[in-house]
Amino acid sequence: MNKKGFIFDLDGVIVDTAKYHFLAWKQLAKSIGIDFNHEQNEQLKGVSRVRSLEKILEWGNKEISRDQFMALMSRKNDEYLSYISKMNDSEILPDVSKMLDFLINKQQPISLGSASKNARQILKKVSLLEKFNAIVDGNDVSKAKPDPEVFLTAAKVLEIETKDCIVFEDSVAGVKAANSANMISIGIGDKDVLREANYIFSDFTEISEDFIEQLINK
Ligand code: B16
Ligand code: MG
Hints:
Layout: E1 5-8, H1 18-31, H2 38-42, H3 49-59, H4 66-84, H5 96-105, E2 110-113, H6 119-125, E3 134-136, H7 149-158, E4 165-169, H8 172-180, E5 184-188, E6 199-201, H9 209-217
The protein binds 1,6-di-O-phosphono-beta-D-glucopyranose and magnesium ion.
């Protein structure tokens, strides 16, 4: 049987932790007198914690010391983790478990490809950690999406050529990263936002088993 590498982003693809990132950043930004909107928030999706704070500070035209920067990052993460601690498997997005089980049944290698340093903890919380052959997250890479490092590393760990990898992503930065890794990008979310993806679906309920079989047999 043909083997492809299936790489899943975490936040916004497997679980809707994007809303918790938004709430935590919003609260932190407010505490230093900065506000940002949903459109700006799209630019934070898939982007590392450091880069996210740099962007928020740019929007607010604020310069701070390195110590203050580190303190704000840790405050944001504490707030974010307070939401994560209450998560359970009811927060897995529709048909994600079904898709993972389908791929496992078809003996397809599966990796996580997330920018988050909290990825393992979240997957454990929602009882999905065992479904993955590899976990590549923010602790394993030094360059944030749109750099392709996270996906290239996942392909290497799965021992699958990059052209045979398929990436599920909800962020503009992540779709760009998958495209520049020479992989097939599948956008999960808004068609207007993710227009650079090779294929776009609102969520996994829209993706048929036939479509996945075709990708496997290509
Ligand atoms: P953390 P993904 C990304 O995860 C999020 O989309 C992004 O908003 C966040 O800043 C980044 O992880 C870092 O997360 O603060 O938990 O290390 O979408 O690549 O799974
Ligand atoms: Mg994401």
